[in-house]
């Protein structure tokens, strides 16, 4: 995922403070990294790039609580509940702190809660906002998740050692004197060090560490499910969600790891277009063949027709002219309609009046009951006519073939 990851400063935020940052296209490998003032941080190179603010480990305290039943992550009284549960564990007044509950938190079990200075966090986020780098997510540098790992970080003047895992996050100075302060599971945990303090970490812990650049650690922190944008910092949650959607969409369009999917989508669309065109060509060819057959039938049956404009209409006109010249009757003539009506009508019924226009016969005075009218309509339909009762008249017309 395309991201700008910024490590928030431990000192009060101001325009003059320089921030450590890293950029990435795929969310795993740093593209660029460095230090710059907020206004000089890299701008988004494409739509959807998210800005992730990382809170240093030194600015967070971690606590375990058990939420009472009936309290959920979305409860309006969650803040008050946390203040009551943490009151005896905090060194500062709860009102001055910002709390973040672990992801997928549920009542009834022990949960991790992070606390940090509210005003410090607000000013740091506002600094990025004022510089045009609106924060999408706020994550901790280390979180209590996964297996326990030791991290040696900082510089030779201020080296630090962090133990991070599902048992908690502990920050101590990188010295042999502070080692007993680490939790017991951390004593034999894997060791990762920044190059600046790698030699010191090997000297203190008596084992060689694995090397990792700070930028790699920040990108790893950005992939956590933790998000400190809760309570008053979640007011722009909808905007963050839209921006995150834009980030995912932009990554799908440009990120290297999505290249096979993009080619697959293009290939799928191309195959569908080819298939649709082939199907349309086949249907068009079949329709043209049918039209040609109708034209041939017309010109072979009536050689005098030299120009074919509308074959069915011309065929009907030629048949009508032929019938007229030979004196033959058609199903639309009065004699044919009367013969069909005589077969379908109830016996011994005399019509009071008969009106005929070409193709339509109106018969009055039959006095049909509803059952008789239905039976007559069925009989006429079997002979190719429709019979509809309109007032006192029975209207007979030739049914049009579908």
UniProtKB/TrEMBL annotation:
| UniProt GO cellular component terms | Gram-negative-bacterium-type cell wall; type II protein secretion system complex
Q: Which is a Pfam family this sequence falls into? A: T2SSL
Signal peptide range: none
Q: Which InterPro entries match?
A: ATPase_NBD (IPR043129), GspL_cyto_dom (IPR024230), T2SS_protein-GspL (IPR007812)
UniProt domain GspL cytoplasmic actin-ATPase-like: residue ranges:
35-141
What are the BP-aspect GO terms?
A: protein secretion by the type II secretion system
Protein name, per record: General secretion pathway protein GspL
What is the protein's species of origin?
Caenimonas aquaedulcis
